[in-house]
């Protein structure tokens, strides 16, 4: 809150916020030094350990998935501490390694063009003058938990930590589009950032939303994250927030908003991030040539964070267990836990911090016996959708959302 007040509220402090903004000069310049300690992501049947690193700008201890471009995963223990994920341990994902090492907040412009009456080139100072909104929302990679897919699929082999929940502060995209004046016949809005492909014909990262979605009053251009400016690697100075939707649409270092009068047919919409046009994005393992749609809304998920895979505990007839849940596009209605896969016990939900954010849950389960016990957690959202018990499969490794199992050992 302190930094929010000093950094965003007063007119004079605003200048300070902007002045401080060029950061990360050393980013990625030197080869980061990695800690010796690794972490086991418990990915089935494959290389499962990853080094930890704190060598990236504005970032604390993270699981290193890739250096160029940076792919940093949040350790699960972080989610046990708070429903809000700290900025310095918020996961990082980029597609191309050509990312600015700093952004000059004075000369930065957010350009709005295409099928509009009045193209705009908005300075950060002017962006900060528009009416603001703030809400909590989970940013989850479409491929979060991909490393748990069986059979395994190619792509970043994430555990469960390619996600995070923050309080985002910014300006309604609708307000920006209204200033530019969307012309009749507009169908989509395409978003691009300052990062660039590293190969000559590589497709620049652009994502698009239908024009009505873009103007729904919720989609936000955010410059604040948990009361601070965005870390460079999470999209400084501003990024798109599409609450309830997978974060492939949450374009970082957003500098281009183009209103289109026909659907976006470029690579990142037409070819990448397509899921089977089936419930939950599920097809039989190995399936090919099925109809696809662009990935879109998130679905309910939940995790045990108070205990980790393989943890050893002293046997007791009943143990406490806690964690986090998310509803997807709506709130969390109910979270149940089980230690035998048949009998489910309802947990107590923590404070509601907004329907798009994480919700804490805490409960107890009996331990049926000594030795290995498979703990499970299942979320129902307020639309009545429950997590499936069985994993889905698709070749992109997208949308994993089944009830996860945490095996513990009671000695
Ligand atoms: N400019 C830009 N924005 C981007 C991407 C990117 O490669 N470039 N990747 C997207 C994807 S796939 C994800 S998962 C999220 C990751 O957001 P984070 O790094 O802030 O956690 O950023 C999204 N926005
Ligand atoms: Mo992603």
Q: Indicate the mean pLDDT.
A: 92
Task: Label the overall shape.
Answer: globular
What is the number of strand segments? Answer: 26
Biggest sheet architecture: 5 strands, antiparallel
CATH architecture of the largest domain: Alpha-Beta Complex
Strand content: 25-35%
Ligand catalogue: ligand MTE, molybdenum atom
Rg over CA atoms, rounded to whole Å, is 22 Å
Provide a descriptive summary of the structure in words:
By secondary structure, the protein is mainly beta. The chain folds into 2 domains: 102-294, Oxidoreductase, molybdopterin-binding domain (Sulfite Oxidase, Chain A, domain 2, Alpha-Beta Complex); 301-410, Immunoglobulin-like. The chain is built from 7 helices and 26 strands. It has helices spanning 2-9, 11-19, 76-81, 124-127, 173-180, 211-214, 267-270, and strands at residues 38-40, 49-53, 62-66, 71-73, 92-93, 109-114, 120-123, 132-140, 163-172, 188-193, 206-210, 220-225, 228-229, 239-241, 254-260, 274-276, 292-294, 301-304, 312-313, 318-326, 332-338, 345-346, 348-349, 359-366, 371-381, 405-410. It has a 5-stranded antiparallel β-sheet, with no helix packed on it. A hairpin with an 8-residue loop joins β2 (49-53) and β3. α1 (2-9) packs across α2. The protein is globular and about 70 Å long. Mean pLDDT is 92; it is low at 1-31. Bound molecules: ligand MTE and molybdenum atom (MO). Molybdenum atom binds at residues 93, 141-143, 247-248.
Topology:
Blueprint lengths: L1 H8 L1 H9 L18 E3 L8 E5 L8 E5 L4 E3 L2 H6 L10 E2 L15 E6 L5 E4 H4 L4 E9 L22 E10 H8 L7 E6 L12 E5 H4 L5 E6 L2 E2 L9 E3 L12 E7 L6 H4 L3 E3 L15 E3 L6 E4 L7 E2 L4 E9 L5 E7 L6 E2 L1 E2 L9 E8 L4 E11 L23 E6 L1
Parallel strand pairs: 6-15, 19-26
Antiparallel strand pairs: 1-2, 2-3, 3-4, 4-5, 6-7, 8-9, 9-12, 10-11, 10-15, 12-13, 12-14, 16-17, 18-20, 20-24, 21-22, 21-25, 23-24, 25-26
Helix pairs in contact: 1-2
Bound molecules: ligand MTE and molybdenum atom.
The site of ligand MTE has 19 residues, from strand 5.
């Amino acid at each position: 809150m302190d930094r929010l007040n000093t950094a965003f509220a007063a007119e004079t402090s605003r200048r300070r916020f902007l002045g401080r903004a060029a950061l990360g000069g050393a980013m990625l310049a030197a080869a980061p030094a990695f800690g010796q300690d690794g972490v086991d992501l418990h990915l089935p049947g494959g290389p499962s350990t990853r080094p930890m690193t704190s060598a990236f700008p504005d970032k604390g201890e993270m699981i290193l998935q890739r250096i160029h471009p940076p792919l940093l995963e949040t350790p699960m223990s972080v989610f046990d501490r708070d429903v809000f994920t700290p900025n310095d341990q918020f996961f990082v994902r980029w597609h191309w390694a050509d990312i600015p090492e700093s952004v000059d907040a004075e000369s930065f412009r957010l350009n709005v063009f295409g099928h509009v009456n009045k193209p705009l080139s908005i300075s950060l100072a002017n962006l900060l003058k528009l009416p603001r909104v703030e809400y909590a929302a989970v940013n989850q990679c479409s491929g979060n938990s991909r490393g748990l897919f069986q059979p395994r699929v190619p792509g970043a082999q994430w555990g469960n930590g390619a996600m995070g929940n923050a309080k985002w502060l910014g300006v309604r995209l609708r307000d920006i589009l209204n200033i530019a004046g969307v012309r009749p016949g507009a169908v989509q809005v395409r978003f691009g950032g300052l990062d660039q492909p590293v190969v000559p014909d590589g497709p620049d990262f652009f994502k698009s939303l239908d024009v009505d979605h873009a103007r729904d009053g919720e989609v936000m251009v955010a410059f604040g994250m948990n009361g601070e400016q965005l870390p460079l690697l999470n999209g400084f100075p501003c990024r798109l927030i599409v609450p309830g939707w997978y974060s492939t649409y949450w374009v970082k270092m957003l500098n281009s908003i183009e209103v289109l009068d026909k659907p976006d047919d470029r690579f990142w919409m037409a070819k990448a991030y397509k899921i089977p046009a089936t419930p939950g994005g599920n097809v039989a393992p190995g399936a090919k040539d099925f109809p696809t749609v662009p990935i879109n809304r998130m679905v309910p998920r939940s995790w045990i964070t108070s205990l980790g895979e393989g943890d050893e505990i002293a046997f007791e007839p009943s143990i406490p267990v806690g964690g986090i849940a998310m509803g997807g596009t709506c709130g969390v209605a109910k979270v149940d836990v089980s230690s035998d896969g048949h009998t489910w016990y309802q947990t107590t939900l923590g404070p509601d911090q907004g329907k798009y954010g994480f919700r804490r849950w805490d409960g107890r389960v009996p331990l049926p016996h000594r030795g290995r016990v498979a703990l499970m957690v299942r979320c129902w959202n307020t639309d009545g959708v429950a997590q499936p018990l069985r994993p889905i499969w698709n070749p992109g490794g997208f949308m994993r959302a089944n009830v996860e199992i945490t095996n513990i050992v009671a000695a």
